[in-house]
């Protein structure tokens, strides 16, 4: 069971996002790699594969 540290009323969910990243790191053993989520040059939404 993974529990969050806390949820509070900060603006833009700053601490909530940090808490989610912390839970992911504790679950997966490594930090989430946001670079893998970036679109690649040939990723085009709605286009058929060529």
What this model shows, in words?
- This protein is mainly alpha-helical.
- It is 30% helix and 0% strand.
- The longest helix is centred in the middle third of the chain and has 15 residues, at 14-28.
- It is flat and about 40 Å long.
- GO terms for molecular function: GDP-dissociation inhibitor activity; GTPase activator activity.
Secondary structure: elements and pairs:
Elements lengths: L13 H15 L22
Outline of the structure:
With 50 residues, the protein is mostly helical.
Instruction: Estimate the helix proportion, in percent.
Output: 25-40%
Which shape, going by the Cα principal axes? flat
Q: What is the average of the pLDDT values? A: 78
SS class: mainly alpha
Strand proportion, as a percent range, falls in under 5%
Gyration radius (Cα, Å) is: 16 Å
Low-confidence stretches: none
Number of strands: 0
Number of helices: 1
**How many angstroms does the end-to-end distance come to?**
44 Å
| Helix-strand sequence | H
Largest sheet: none
């Amino acid at each position: 069971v993974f529990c969050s540290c806390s949820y509070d009323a900060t603006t833009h969910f700053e601490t909530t996002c940090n808490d989610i990243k912390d839970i992911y790191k504790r679950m997966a053993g490594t930090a989430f790699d946001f670079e893998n989520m970036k679109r690649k040059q040939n990723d085009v939404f709605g286009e058929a594969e060529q």
